[in-house]
Amino acid sequence: MVSRLFTLSALLGLSIGAAIPNNNGFPTPNDQEKLQIAQEAGGLLPGSPPPDSLGAGSITAFQLIAFNELFETAYFSSLLHNITSGVPGYQAENTNELVKIFSTVLAQEEQHALAAVSTLKAVNAFAPSACQYQFPVSNLKDAVNLAETFTAVVLGALQGANVIFSQDKQAGAVQIISSVIGQEGEQNGYYRVFLDKVPSESPFLTTVPAPFA
Predict the structure, then answer these.
(1) Once rounded to an integer, what is the mean pLDDT over residues 35-59?
(2) Among 78, 88, 70, which Cα is nearest to 134's?
(3) How does DSSP assign 131-188, residue by residue?
(4) What does the domain layout of the chain look like in residue ranges?
(5) C-alpha 209: how far from its chain's center?
(6) Which keywords label this protein (predicted)?
(7) CA dist list (Å): 54 to 127, 136, 139
(8) How far is it between the farthest Cα atoms of the chain?
(9) What number of other Cβ atoms are within 10 A of residue 203's Cβ?
(10) How far is CA 55 from CA 3, 10, 58, 91, in A?
(11) Which architecture, in CATH terms, is 2-19+53-206?
């Protein structure tokens, strides 16, 4: 089951160790900056205490979740920059609306990353660092299409993560990740509408098969 989570890395490509630059202190915000991120995201980090211990499978799952969430923060930060800077291919009539939407999505992904990293640190496990990525897109439509693709992969992989957490008797982790699945589903509904697709892809979202890893 853990192998299914490695699917995420197939979409991320090679990375070079480097912090993701922004103006809210992410990925290591102080308390005031955490409040700023929460305000932008529309909600605070989970209030429940982190686990005292995690099994090996759960640690691996959280490490891959953290790696993916850090990737997503970099992706949406880059997308937002391209939109606000008027980069050719990223211009749109509803720029203000897009800036509002993707600013919120970015902050929400930062919250996801902070939650995953703090969980790993709470059990003294290795936590991935923020990286620098190259994204294979050059216009707004392709960027949203890629976002829809990797978000769909995340929705499949997180199902596997919840199975691992259940086997490890981590009810708190199951609850938090289930809330993330719902939030990512809301995101993907918007991306699909943007791409002129039906917002809900299917009645039951399938798990990501291991061969894709």
Answers:
(1) 95
(2) 78
(3) EE---S--SHHHHHHHHHHHHHHHHHHHHHHHHHHHHTT-HHHHHHHHHHHHHHHHHH
(4) 2-19+53-206
(5) 19
(6) Signal
(7) 13, 36, 41
(8) 50
(9) 5
(10) 16, 25, 5, 47
(11) Up-down Bundle (1.20)
Within 15-126, where are the H helices? 31-41, 56-84, 95-122
Q: Hey, what amino acid is at 197?
A: K
Residue 21 has pLDDT above 90, yes or no: no
Q: Which two tokens stand for residue 117?
A: 């990293």
Question: CA–CA separation, 202 vs 213, rounded Å?
Answer: 23
Per-residue pLDDT reduced to its tens digit, 139-188: 999 999 999 999 999 999 999 999 999 999 999 999 999 999 999 999 99
Residues whose CB falls within 8 Å of the CB of residue 33, separated by 6 or more in sequence, listed in order: 24, 25, 26
Closest CA to 79 of 13, 27, 146, 25: 146
Instruction: With a cut of 80, say whether residue 26 has pLDDT above it.
Output: yes
Closest CA to 186 of 209, 155, 156: 155
SS3 86: coil
Distance (Å, whole) CA 44 – CA 143:
28
105 burial (CB, 10 Å; 0-12 / 13-18 / 19+) is buried
